Automatic annotation (TrEMBL):
Record keywords, A-Z: Cell membrane, Membrane, Transmembrane, Transmembrane helix, Transport
Listed PROSITE patterns: ABC_TM1
Subcellular location: Cell membrane
Natural source organism: Cryobacterium levicorallinum
Protein family according to the UniProt entry: Belongs to the binding-protein-dependent transport system permease family. CysTW subfamily.
UniProt membrane topology term: Multi-pass membrane protein
GO CC terms, sorted: plasma membrane
Keyword Ribonucleoprotein found: no
Protein name: ABC transporter permease subunit
Recorded coiled-coil stretches: none
InterPro entries associated with the record: MetI-like (IPR000515), MetI-like_sf (IPR035906)
Amino acid sequence: MGLIPFLVFIAFFLGVPVCGIVLSAFRVADVNDPGIYVPSLANFVASFRGASWEAMQNSLQISLIAALTGGIIGLALAQAILTTRSKKLTAVVTVLTSVLANSGGVPLAFSFIAAVGNAGIMTGLLSLTDLGFTLYSSGGLILMYQYFLIPTMVMVVLPTLAGLRLEWKEAAASVGATSWHFWKKVGLPIATPAILAGFVLLFGASFATHASAAALIGGGGVPLITLRIDSGLAGGNLAGQENVAMALGVNMIIVALLVLLVYMPLQKRSLRWFQ
């Protein structure tokens, strides 16, 4: 009985929109009577062709690189924090990561534009333009994504790394194992599920980012699936392709579900050693 309000909320604010997206994705105008819509897979076929397919590929590529970069840096940062053995620092980092991991949107884009845009402060100081760097590119998006991806990775793996018991290290040392052997045989096998879960989470966050990317590069420059959907629903050059945008939305939902299906068992497995 206690779950009924929650289930009603989910049904109205998640279930109904998803059903609307799916139904619209399977509807196309009848060639003989444009005012009538008939069931068809034409929208999905169009979503895997031309600019729409390019946007999907580009989003997957950027998300993969951004997740790998954020995952490696976040993992190294989390381990560095733990080596200080400072409880105060760990507590502060825990709070900061939870805040920064949920930061984004238009303010984040404008902050990066002010810092490393074409007329940014750091761009002038470091002569980034002479080095060929531009924020309004795939590399710029990947750089901006690190602002919330690295804290997310730290937030995910820090509890697991902190949970590696001192007794395990002492037991390994007592039989002559070096620090390298400990991490190879004990530490990494235990932490790997959490590391992979963090990477999957970063990939999903990068793939679904819209507001920050839209504010940074607008509708052009770097084709992304989220921007493509936005353009399709807003009309303009893509007027009449609203249902193709819905099909792209269904494709994104499928990717999100796959990310969730991979993340949940990995997260559950990572907690097995600490229960």
